[in-house]
Amino acid sequence: MRCQRISERFDDFARVVCPDLCIVSGVLLDISKEGFKAEFNAPCTVDLEKEYQVQLRLSRITAEPLDLIVRPVWSKFVDGKTELGVTILHSKDTTRLEKYIRMLKDEKNDRDDAGIVSYDSDSLFI
């Protein structure tokens, strides 16, 4: 299913706060600029036709939480936990989210390039 996504998703951690969905906070499992997947350790009443205001308290930055408007795409309840996939609608913090996603992408690229030795072709010995 990941290969059908519009944008790359990144594994990340954040607290997901949405009292209209669940009385307990959830945790972020992955995120892209279009959506995210979260897990709540309790049953949630999810209306797939409703928009919800969500706060993401990101672990990598200490700034104010991201305030986002989301619409659920799917949900499932397994072993006492609710998993939820949402699409992110245009929100107050859309620009901040896009910057955060760019930071995650840059970090991933830095990790991927860690084993590559770059060189300057002008300084090669023949």
Q: Would you kindly provide a written description of the structure presented here, covering whatever features stand out?
A:
The termini are far apart. The mean pLDDT is 86. This protein is α+β, with helices and mostly antiparallel strands. The chain is built from 1 helix and 7 strands. The protein has a 6-stranded antiparallel barrel. It is 15% helix and 37% strand. Strand 6 and strand 7 form a beta hairpin. It has one helix spanning 94-112, and strands spanning 10-11, 14-17, 26-31, 35-40, 52-58, 66-78, 81-89.
Layout of strands and helices, then pairs:
Layout: E1 10-11, E2 14-17, E3 26-31, E4 35-40, E5 52-58, E6 66-78, E7 81-89, H1 94-112
Antiparallel strand pairs: 1-3, 2-3, 2-5, 3-4, 4-7, 5-6, 6-7
SS-derived structural category: alpha+beta
Coarse shape: globular
Number of strands: 7
Distance between the termini: 49 Å
